[in-house]
Amino acid sequence: MEFAKVNVEVRPTNGKGGARKVRAAGKVPGVLYGRKEAPVAVTFDEKELLTSLDKEKKRNTVLKLAIAQPGNNGGKSEEVTAMVRDAQINPLSRRLEHVDFLRVDLEAEVHVTVPLVLTGKAVGVTNGGNLHQSLHVIPVAAKPAAIPTKLEVDVSALDIGDALHVSDLKLGAGVRALLDARDALASVVAPKAEKVEEAAAAPVEGAVPAEGAAAAGGAAAPAAGAAAAPAAGGAKPEAGGKGGDKKGK
Does a structural domain hold residue 139? Predict the structure, then answer.
């Protein structure tokens, strides 16, 4: 199988100072490690690496690194099969600042993550439910050449209350998911209650809770009635008393 080739050069200087010099020279510093080999500090051309990566597989692209010693001037270089394990990107310029390459054996499994893509329209969504995707990437183990670009799963048959699990994935030969088979990938949940009902059920800020409100209401009502009764009742006797005095006189 043919793999994209990337030229890298061993750099003698390690540390932040050496990395800054590499960037100042228009190159990107990196490290090649793995397979019980001693780590090797390297430099490479950013554009060459980015154009070599598969647009869909991205970091899961298998590369053929041509490693040259400094000052080799086109001499023979060692070729190593590797993948991008990690990349540091400048948050402002969006340029590569450092890359870790991992040596890989084409006959040995590697652990990577693969995008999960949901296809179709769930019948439960048509019935008013909401589709919830629990996972967006799936960790898998596979030989480098067998790593899938993405994993697709059809959600068309999902009704409200239904779910798809890891066990429902159709993995290619030599690919296995590094998750529990019972883990949910996507589900269709019932729609939320109407906003009017939520507003009616939700407690008003600063209000007394339901039970307290009932107790307070029960206590407040008699108090108001008690205050009103004497006022009304007291006025009548007072008026009647004065009237009686006048009649008596």
Answer: yes
